Amino acid sequence: MTDGISKLIYVGDPMCSWCWGFAPEIQSLADDNQVDVVVGGLRPGPMAQELDDRMASSLSHHWHQVAEQTGQQFDTRFLDRRDGWVYDTEPAAIAVTTMREMDETATLGYLTEIQAAFYERGEDVTRSEILVGLAVGHSIDLDVFAATIETDEARKTAWHDFSRARNWGISGFPALVGELDDGRLALLARGWTGAADIRDRMADLGRMAS
Asked: Which DSSP letter does residue 42 get?
């Protein structure tokens, strides 16, 4: 951990394409830094949209951009769906915050597993059974996890995260915040940023704080 910075706070969404592009960068940073996860809320609940021709075209454009810039893989066949599927990011966000409550150390890895399932394999991560299946292998009680993600309390926890991100002025993802040793917060990245550049910013911030 860089002197002057106690931890990193990653604000992202498991169904955000640029967050999937950012996955190798944040994983690299997590090798030598504590990373807390806050889900930002891309298209949750009332803001969810049905996948139609217009939305599919927009998503395809973004996914190709991310793939070209980051090298991350996408299965774009998912965008061919026209069965009324709704791009609702709330269930995956609830699953991530529930994992955080049950095993905080597994949160980032679980978030990345959801991203890989959706973007690489075209799995429907709005479905509870998919989200529970992706939690297999973590040191949690799967039955408790499956029951908890269906509760109002778990939904409130996720929406508290959404509000927290917006209170920080963050509405686009990914974003990375550094918490200084004195408790102050500093924005390190807004949008996709390489890990090397973030480390440089952390070092600058650490020097300023010392």
From this structure: S
Q: Please name the amino acid found at residue 127.
A: R
User: What are residue 26's phi and psi, to 5 degrees?
Assistant: -70, -35
Tell me how many domains the chain contains. Answer: 1
User: What is the Cα–Cα distance from 113 to 63, expressed in whole angstroms?
Assistant: 18
- Mind listing the pLDDT tens digit for each residue in 158-186? 999 999 999 999 999 999 999 999 999 99
Tell me if 174 sits within 8 A of 26, measured CB to CB.
yes
Strands (E), 51-199: 86-87, 175-180, 185-190
Residues of the chain with pLDDT under 50: none
Q: What is the pTM assigned to this prediction?
A: 0.96
Q: Which domain holds residue 49?
A: 5-209
One-letter amino acid identity for 210?
S
129-138: long-range pairs with CB below 8 Å, 24+ = 131/91, 131/92, 131/95, 134/95, 134/110, 135/95, 135/99, 135/110, 138/99, 138/103, 138/106, 138/109, 138/110
CATH at 182: 3.40.30.10
Distance CA 163, CA 41 (A): 9
